[in-house]
Design a protein that fits this description.
With 382 residues, this protein is mainly beta. It has 4 domains: 2-50, no CATH class; 61-178, Leucine-rich repeat, LRR (right-handed beta-alpha superhelix), CATH 3.80.10.10; 203-340, Alpha-Beta Horseshoe (Leucine-rich repeat, LRR (right-handed beta-alpha superhelix)); 348-382, no CATH class. Helix content is 9%, strand content 22%. It contains 4 helices and 29 strands. The chain has helices at residues 34-50, 310-313, 342-347, 349-354, and strands at 2-6, 13-17, 22-24, 31-33, 62-65, 68-72, 79-81, 88-89, 102-104, 111-112, 125-127, 134-135, 148-149, 157-158, 171-172, 180-181, 194-197, 203-204, 217-220, 235-236, 249-250, 258-259, 272-275, 281-282, 295-298, 303-304, 328-330, 365-366, 372-373. The strands form 9 sheets. The protein has a 6-stranded mixed beta sheet with strand order 5-6-8-10-12-14, with no helix packed on it. Strands 16-18-20-22-24-26 form a 6-stranded parallel beta sheet, with no helix packed on it. A 3-stranded parallel beta sheet has the order 7-9-11, with no helix packed on it. The N and C termini lie far apart (83 Å).
Length: 382
Amino acid sequence: MYVQGKCYKCGGILAVDNAEDASVCPFCNKPFIVEKAISCFNETVSQETSVKQTSYNYDSDFIVERSVLVRYNGFTKKDVRIPEGITVIGETAFQGMNNIESVYIPEGVEIISEGAFSGCKNLKTVHIPDGVETIDRDSFNGCICLSSLTIPDSVRNIEAGSFTGCTSLESINIPSEIEMLPWRIFEGCTSLKYIAIPKKVKTIEDYAFAECSSLEDVSFENVHTAEDKSLGIFRIGMNAFRNCSALMNINLPETVKYIGNQAFRGCSRLKKLVIPKSVKAVYPLAFADCTGLEQVTFAGDTELYRGSNPYKYEKNSATFYNCPKLLSVSYSKQLKNYWAFPAYIRSQEQFYIESGRCRHCGGEFKGIIERVCSNCKAHKDY
């Protein structure tokens, strides 16, 4: 049976089959949950019966369809105040408008769509009101003059690449209800100095903070308790903090289970590192090129993985590849994973030789005529 519904992504009014679980909006071509669309329409009707519908007169610079701001054409104005009555800022609505320096978004807006303000090179300030729920992918990509932004806690979804390349961005908050920091969300934000990760964030996706060369401090709201084990960060993705060269220390919470390929590669000011016992796996080159790293402590029996693909992981996939100062390692599986700590193993070579052990890994030799290391299988060569 068909009933009226409202697309909660673009605001379009449409007919939906209440026997279906999901469908695709004919206006924005995005999938939606039927039950939620019906509920959204009913709420709109309820509001319209209790409050007289306001009639909005839009400036000719604003192209509006069904409360969706499709495009802004004010090519000479620096300060933009989006009119009331808008619920969705449409895809690429302000894209490439280099004349704009400030934008005021009114209450009632729920969605900032894909690429809405991307490439606005002179945009410095944006007011985002409480009530906005979604900041779609690439929304502020390339806004190189945007220096700070306050995002309300009503925002539950921030999509991939939303703030990529915002090179002047020094401070930004992550709303408390966010559960994932998506791919490339802050990649290349070279002025970002501090970030706080809320307790509900479970995953930091690939390249999320890559090339944030001024990032000095990352704090995690660690609330992984016996009462609620669903809270806290579980996975740090591939290249997540790559080349964050100002990062001096990272206190990984006791909730992290996986650290991805090259996750902290090039964090050259990192000096000490503790891998919590909660970490099950660290993947190839996770801390490669951390040239200032001096000490690593593993609190548990974490597995270290080495890559088998030389094109993907280069010739050497050591976890701590090119960490020349790493001469202090505390790890229960150190012998088995000798390849992961090349600088440390080299520093122990003379001691191993004097002890009659394998100079390559510290393992014991077996055999009477031909001595072979029981760990790395190398022949005795001294």
